[in-house]
Sequence to fold (197 residues):
Amino acid sequence: MSRTVHPIEAESYRILRGRVDLSHLPPLTRAVTERVVHASADLDYVADLVCDEAALAGGLTALRAGAPIVTDVWMVAAGITRAGREIVCPVTEPAAADLGRAAGITRSAAAVRIAADRVGPGAVWVVGCAPTALVELIALDAAPALVVGLPVGFVGAAESKAALRASGLPAVSNVGEKGGSAVAAAALNALLYLEDM
Fold:
């Protein structure tokens, strides 16, 4: 995807690179880390983000091949540079509420079940809000190409990300409670911006 970098973004990256040197990081890890720090203005992500270069490369390959993108909430979807892609996010559909009530799970977890049935294996999943969505994804046999697991919160966020790292799924996460929609979208956008390179 060809995109024009706005002068404010260029200046933000200049400031970021003046404050921390990430040149030692592998290229995809560096791109994701810089994009997350740029989006959050939080240098703690430099030490807090957990990236796996091979997982990122697999995610980039999947995106280049047109893999579907699934998000836990529309707030994450809104932050993703779509490049003509449809984003799957059934959380607001009545079926997610109905399944959640019937199964005794959150609406976000129910939406993950619905999305997994729709997209099948090889999708790129982006979770930035609901720890229960990440836990549900880990429990399913969804075979994702990549999971961006950066939910935020005091209840279950850190634990769900630890479970993601322990699961062996190809993933990006962070240690701790912080994260969120903007951060998750930024991590994926870093790969989307590299898609045509």
In short: The longest strand covers residues 124-127.
